[in-house]
Amino acid sequence: MFKIVTLVLYVGVILFIGYRSMKKTKTFGEFFLANRSVGPWLTAFTYGTAYFSAVLIIGFAGKIGWGFGLSSMWVALGNTVIGTFLVWKLLGVRIMRASQKLGVQTMPEFLEARYDSRFLKAYSAVCIFVFLIPYSASVYMGLSYLFQINFNVPYEYVLFGMALLTALYLTMGGYKAVTIVDIFQGMIMIAGIIVMVLMFTDNAGGFAKILTTLDSIDPKLTSLWGPPGWLSIMALVFLTSVAPFAMPQLIQKFYGIKDEKSVKIGTIVATAFALIITFGAYYSGALTRVFISADKYSGLFEGGKPAVDKFMPVMIRDFVPELLGVIILLLVFAASMSTLAALVLVSSSSIVKDLYQGFINRDAGERKLLLPMRIACIVAIILSVILALKRPVIIVTMLSISWGAVASVFLAPFVYGLLWKRATKLSAIISSFAGLGTTLIWYALSESTKLVPLIASAGMIVSLVILPVVVLIQTGLNSKTSNA
Which CATH class is domain 2-407? Predict the structure, then answer.
C-alpha cells in the first residue's frame, strides 16, 4: 500500500508540472526547446536522465552484469568519461553556436543547412522516427517488467498506464515540463542508486564477500575483461559511449541551453551525475551472479536460459526493504519517464518539423506546428507500445540495434560536419549509408544476438572511416581535373 500511495503522489506531481507548463507553451519552439532558455543544472539533469533509463537499470545492468561480472565497470567508465564529459566538453558549445548561427532546431535541419542537402534532411528524419521507436519500446519493456514483478500488475496494464502518463505530461508541457521534471527525477535517481548499492552490498555480506563469491562461481567474473573477453566489452563501451556524440535525443539538449557559461557548468554536473548512476547500476548488475541462481530462482531460467531482463526487478523485490525499495522503484520510474519524453519529442519533431514543415507545408508557422507536434507525440507513443507488447527480443538487444542504427546514420555526418570544414555532402551521404548498411545487413545475417553490440559498433566505425576517405578521393579527383 505504501508503494502505491507514493507512486500516485509522484504521478500527481508530474501531471501538475505538465499542466502548469502547458500555459507557457504556445509555439513549436517553446514546446521543443523551451525557447533556448534552459540553464546548466536543468540541461545537465535532462541529459543524464535521457541517457540513462530503465534500459540501463533493468536491461543492461542485469544482462551485462550477469555476463561480464565486475568488468562491466568498463562500460560505466566509458559512459561517464566519453559519453558524458567528452560530449559536453568537445561538442557542447559548438552545437549551441551552430544551432543558433544556422537557425536550426533539429538534427535533420542541421544536416540540411551544413551540407545544403534536402535529401539528408528527409532521410535522417525518417531514420530518427523508425529507429527510435524500438528504443522507446525497450524502455517501456524494462519499466513494465519492474512493476509486474514488484506490484504483481500484469505487464500489459503497466505498459498502457505508462503510455497514458507519458502522453499526458509530455503533450501538455513539452520540453519545459520535461526539464523541470528531470531535475526532480534526477535527484530521485541519485538517491535510489545509492540505496540500491548499499542494500545489495549489505545483503551480499560486504564487498570482500562479493569478490570471494564471484571468484568461486567463475574467476573471470572478477577479472579485467570478464568471461566474454576484451573485444566484447570494448564493443559495448564503444556503442554506449561514442553513440551519444550523435544521438538526436541527447544532442537536442544543447540546442535548448541558454549560453556558453551554462555549458561549462553543465559539463561538471552531468559528469558527476553519470559517474554516480552508471557505476551504481553496473556494480549492482554484477551482483546478479551473487543473488540469482537456478536453484533459488528456477522460474527465472526459462528453458535453461537466464531471463536476464527480470533479474534486477527480482533483486529489488527480495533484497531491499519495502520503505527503501520505493526509492529504487521511483529511480527506475524517473529514469524511464525522462528517456521516454526525450525520445518521443525527437521522434515527433522528425515528422512534424522536418518532414511536414520541411516538405509538405513550408508556410506552417511555429504556432500551427504545436497541435501536429502533440498528435505526433501520441502516435510515437502508440507505436512504441505496440512493439513493446510483442517483446520481440530482450531489452539489451533491442536497444543495441536501435542505438547502432541511429549512431551509424548520424555519427560521421554530424561530428565531421561540426568539427571539419572539408566534410562534403557526398561524403556525408555515403558514410551514413555505409554505416547503416553495415549494421542492418550484418545483423540480418547474424544468427547470434551476442554479436549485436559488435555489429552496431562496426557500423559506427565504418561511417567514421568512410567519410574522410570519400573526402580525400574527391579532393584528389578535383585536383586532377583542375590540373588537366
Answer: mainly alpha
